[in-house]
User: Which sequence fits this backbone?
């Protein structure tokens, strides 16, 4: 909020944040932002943005498998690099 003399009283407006960040954007990032502001977003991208995060229930078994993987990562269990998996399945 600005005081009577126009001094900033410690909070940054959305416009100020944008003005600070825009000069750091790549040309591609600026194009995407401009299309979004002008409402000219690709309809496929719009569908993805508007889609619900999850459209079906996660089963107890799936949740347990996810937790097991998280626990293994937290315990620094050995992992297989993505490139190795791709080679194994002939995807490289």
Assistant:
């Amino acid at each position: 909020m600005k005081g009577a003399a126009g001094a900033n009283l410690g909070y940054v407006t959305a416009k100020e944040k944008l003005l600070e960040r825009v000069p750091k954007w790549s040309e591609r990032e600026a194009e995407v932002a401009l299309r979004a502001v002008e409402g000219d977003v690709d309809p496929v991208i719009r569908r993805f943005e508007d889609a619900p995060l999850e459209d079906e229930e996660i089963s107890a078994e799936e949740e347990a498998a996810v937790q097991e993987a998280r626990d293994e990562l937290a315990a620094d269990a050995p992992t297989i690099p993505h490139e190795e998996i791709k080679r194994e399945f002939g995807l490289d």
Q: What stands out?
A: The longest helix spans residues 60-74. Residues 14-88 form one domain. The mean pLDDT is 85.
